[in-house]
Amino acid sequence: MNTMKLQPKDYEKLKLVNEIEVSEKYVAWVDKGVNKKTKEYNSHIKLLTRENGKIIKFTAGKNDSTPKISPNETKLAFVSKRNEKKQLYLMGFEGGEAQPITPEKYSVMNYNWSPDSKKIVFSAKIPKDQELDEEWKEIENDPRVISEMVYQTGTEFIQEELIIQLFTIDLKTKELELLTDKEHNFHGAKWYDNETILTVTTLDKPTDNSDFKQLVKINLVSKEMKRFVDLFNPFYFINFSIELTLDKTIFMGRLFENTYSSAYLSQIGKWGKISENQVEMINKDLDRSIISMNWYSNEKALCQVSNSGTIDLRVYDRTTGEFNQLFEPRNSIEGFGGNEDEVYFIGTEPAYPSAVWKWTKEKGIELVDDPNEELIKSKKIALPEEIWLTNEEGVKYQGWFFDASTEEKKAPLILSMHGGPHVMWDTAGSMWIEWQTQVAAGYSVLAMNPVGSDGYGEDFLRVICGNWGKVDARDLLAAIDYLVEQGKIDPENLFIGGGSYAGFQTANIIGIDQRFKAACAQRGVYNLLTLDAGGDVTRFDETWYLETEERDVLRLWNDSPVSKVKEVNTPLLIIHSEQDYRVPIHQADHYFKELKRHNKTVLFVRYPREGHELSRSGEPKHIIDRLERMVKWFDKYKS
Questions:
Q1: Does the pTM exceed 0.90?
Q2: Homologous superfamily (CATH) for 102-137+150-232
């Protein structure tokens, strides 16, 4: 039995696989890890030949991503930042040197092959007032001139002088052609046929702040743009996804119904069949979120479905409208390709934090590539106990308990809560390194999916709409009571933490409950009145919280943790990123200063150059520092 404990520093050894692409002959995916010398991320593409099962490291770049196999299976395209900007590269399967095919001045955002493999469509930002053949002029933005409601997103300011346009490149002639009008932003593109592109834009108001966007077709020859259907989406940072059946029926994901709410089968979960001026939702009866869809025949598609703390695969039959689970998952599926007979997928679970798998009808699930085999073999990995509880309304909710207790002593507990709020925990994924290092440090971890979480149906999801931090907080605390009653934890050493919505929840709970020895709130929402000030969540009151166009200022203030600072007696570590434009850092500034004003025990840690994704994709040194800092904070107050 391995007894070596996983340390935060082991993050430098962890490999993550993502962006899997499956064709008849090949499977490609991205391998990402920390460069031991530079302490920065490197990523390259691996390739499996399905006929013989041989796996090779196919590209040798430092930042290769987004592999896509040509329909005729002769070339692989991928995006790489080998110079200053992201360019599109091509490489034949026989090997050789990868060749850039897009101009260096364009930073490629996304792309797709044409059905005949002769062209590629891609999107890039270009200056509105510059001709394409002019020498490239960089925008200085000094001073910044802002006219739009959303002017920051991710970790960057949105440059209004730039506009997202679509280009095609002919792979034989190398001819580059601008498809769009330099008046509207165009979000992604899918080939409808060899002469037509599908894309999403804002025709009525050339801005990203419009509630409605349009699905349009663009003819490559005439440049005619045909309006297909209006799509409701009040959120700048959530893009639509488009999939086509073989007979060109359009299906779209990340849809919203025409009402102000983020909580309809999660913000990325609605899928609909699109016909002219009409959207027919397909997952109403399924009552689960569809994350992505991949058509492999005219009638059937594989779908990623969020369900009860895992992401499984379903076969959707458009004739019957049924969703049938393909196999019982042993892990959450993070990417996939294939059909109902054979699937390659990326899965995550405690013993395999990120690996490539294969499922067939004949043999079931088989491991294809585990880049973390050496790391896992050398460490003691904690496996969780599944827990189901029933709340006061008779609603069942799920979670997992990672036990760090020994025969001699009950371990202290960290209540680890998820953000969203409409997402869900599984047993590994992006939390694997955090939970495993906390258990290794001697802390048991409880990860629950209370009401409001995705994966358990729309009624379950919508319980907390406009009522953050009430019923869900009650059920989280009840889960701790359950573990105390079971004699599994030390009731005198309880700790709490989480990020984003869970940062809100951490601050909310320590304002109403005094049982915790210390807390850690990260990238949290502490003042509901000012969340959308400077961030990219616009119209927060109407869409994410109150679901009304009336702004109830008193209610928003009373529901905010900053209004409860007088009741906080728990030592609090606040962690926030300085370039977080989802939940801007002014939220942490305000909460910290109010706590200090009332002489509370609080420490504020700000990470430069980081955004809302610090814990998942921040600089390696920041990720490691954060993991170490949380445990040291809890250790300080542990008895």
A1: yes
A2: Tricorn protease N-terminal domain (2.120.10.60)
